[in-house]
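Please, structure for the following, as tokens.
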Amino acid sequence: MEEELLRELEELRRRGLYRRRFLPEGLKVLCSNNYLNLSNRREVKEAALRAVETYGTGSGASQLVSGYTELHRSLEEELAKAKGVPACLTVGSGYLANLAVITALVSEGDLVLSDELNHASIVDGVRLSKAAKFVYPHRDAKAARLFLEKRRGGFRRCLIVTDGVFSMDGDLAPLPELVELAERFDCFLVVDDAHATGTVGLSSLAYWGLEWKPFVVEVGTLSKALGSYGAFVCGSETLVEYLVNKARPVIFSTSLPPPSVAAAEAALRVLLAEPSLVERLQNLSREVKKRLRAEGFDLGPAEEFTPIVPLLVGEEERALGLRDRLLERGFFVQAIRYPTVPRGKARLRLTVTLEHPPEVYAAFVQTLVEIWK
């Protein structure tokens, strides 16, 4: 068996799909999702330290045993208030949150409509649910509507699921059209706001000027713009009660460590008190993308103001070569390859964060221009 594993690893190397972990010390990390740099804010770190002193380093059990603390309850209430929804539930990670929602809400005899570029956790959640699925072309609400017109009547429950901001391309889901479809065809709409919370505002719904409705479920993470770890699901009180009773990743996972919960709540309070952070991030993102496009780089369909910058390369080996040459120059920007993105669409995934000043991104662009050829 060991030899078989080694053969598979060698095949991954041959195809340019081998992966390894990096120790980024001494490098300018330009592929972090710590968009607002809140993990380094003094008040966020101090909140985590206080939680360690009061609660210890871990929660000790699942939420339904003894792992639900005042910290968890408080964060859920503050998230619900900030998002403008009745209730919220903390979950162990963004991956687990999508698995929890999808597998709890739909099963055999149900239907899921999923954008073709949704995150892997959504893809896996749909597979595990055993529901029938229709993968509609990226951002194509018309294709989703045509399918629902023909097939909706043959299923009990229906769920439409999409990223709010797509993690690899930095573009936005057409939420106004998807909300209308969900309401018209009696579907849940699940929006994964992992890369939207704190980058487009407090939520994708808020960005589009849409009011929350009971059939809308928002999934998000605490580990990106909020600078901590874990995830949340926001929606109706009935939905949260249902997930507490039915979602296996919630029932059978140890709850979030108190220091992570306290850090996330402190970060949320910073975000609410300083909305200019989002404006600064968006302005910096526009400037970086403007510089790159002026130099002729292909950034695909990325929105100008989102912090995700896909530097499209194409071939896996070339993406790896560019990454390694940037590492030699002190910049860490990870190469993203299949199966995270389709074959032949490898890229360097640059992210803009408030950790670095504009001068760092200007130096990166200049370095990239020098090595690109």
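The chain has two domains: 16-35+275-372, 42-273. The chain has 14 helices and twelve strands.
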